[in-house]
Amino acid sequence: MTGPRLALAAALLCSCTSPVADANSWWSLAMNPIQRPEMYIIGAQPVCSQLPGLSPGQRKLCQLYQEHMVFIGEGARSAIKECQYQFRQRRWNCSTVDNTSVFGRVMKIGSRETAFTYAVSAAGVVNAISRACREGELSSCGCSRAARPKDLPRDWLWGGCGDNVEYGYRFAKEFVDAKEREKNYVRGSEEQARMLMNLQNNEAGRRAVYKLADVACKCHGVSGSCSLKTCWLQLADFRKVGDLLKEKYDSAAAMRISRKGKLELVNNRFNTPTQEDLVYVDPSPDYCLRNETTGSLGTQGRLCNKTSEGMDGCELMCCGRGYDQFKSVQVERCHCKFHWCCYVKCKKCTEIVDQYVFSVREYPISGSILALVLTGILDCNLPKFEFKHQEAGRNLRSEAVSKYAVVAGVDSCDIAQVQ
């Protein structure tokens, strides 16, 4: 980021105030399509005033760097996608809600899950901005200017156009941290603890991208002899960033605020966290049941693995409250053959498999066991399959059937009850 712009950005940020626990978040940029700068209509209202979820400081940074906003949105989307992948087998699975808070009220709790979300979101911005620089999408940055690694062989060239991780890191720090730095909180207060927690986790996310960026090389020479190599700095696949942050989540440190206004370990037997580690200040809520107060969506309707003893197992996922079994049709490509020249042709094979889902307990039930026949999956021409509740004497109402139909992948096909 250029010097004058950084100075102006810092001056703007110092004059802004906004609560840390505001329900709105810049994460909402992932949920709303943003026009590229070249698509703006001359004389139209600036895009920054229309974007939801931005704090005052972030809105002013947006005015300085409007062309960056598209890529901040892309970074937020990749972060949400990665969060949902990493927690796909957990009770809390990073579900989004349809408002500017994105993840709902659960983010107001300074839990491990909140720590991961802040970290992966900051990482997503670094990743997206760094790549946009390399691809020439931003006027304020270009290819990486990283110094040549000392361990690179002498006869290898250091050049090419690398991902500009340095710029991505600096810009992400300015933008993502802006909201946390906009207000001075009472020293030793819960609000200050949450602000420091967010800043720590933002930094851990950015450093994860920086740490995993590595040297990539391309061979040159006659007939691929690789007599010469050109190398550059390249971002790691974002899945590796998510994997690293998930490890940090598992080892996150419980912290509390001291009278001096600094975070300190709750248990001094553990090592002090570094800038690459995640921290949290509140215990995680109970994610088993839906709770409007905490923002927990519960695990109702989630698929589980009957044979697993891990977090994705039915006993843990369903919190010991029972689960239902249904038969699902899965379609896969099979019997693939290569045809000259040059394509591969496959058949579609269907397989009926048993799946398990957390029971729908809130619906009134009576009578004997009924088989629920869900007719047609995907193209509605596949074989029928049955859905049965495990316990005798239970009859699920049609509302429950609809819920299970969604889980099973049925959308427009007919759903019927039969005796």
TrEMBL record:
Example GO biological process: canonical Wnt signaling pathway
Sorted UniProt keywords: Developmental protein, Disulfide bond, Extracellular matrix, Glycoprotein, Lipoprotein, Secreted, Signal, Wnt signaling pathway
Signal peptide start and end residues: 1-23
Coiled coil stretches, renumbered: none
Domain of life of the native organism: Eukaryota
InterPro entries named among the record's database cross-references: Wnt, Wnt_C, Wnt_CS
UniProt KW Glycoprotein keyword: yes
Subcellular localization(s) per the UniProt record: Secreted, Extracellular space, Extracellular matrix
Keyword Signal: yes
GO molecular function: cytokine activity; frizzled binding
One cellular-component annotation, GO: extracellular space
Entries under CDD domains matching the protein: Wnt_Wnt5b
Task performed by this protein: Ligand for members of the frizzled family of seven transmembrane receptors.
Family: Belongs to the Wnt family.
Protein name: Protein Wnt
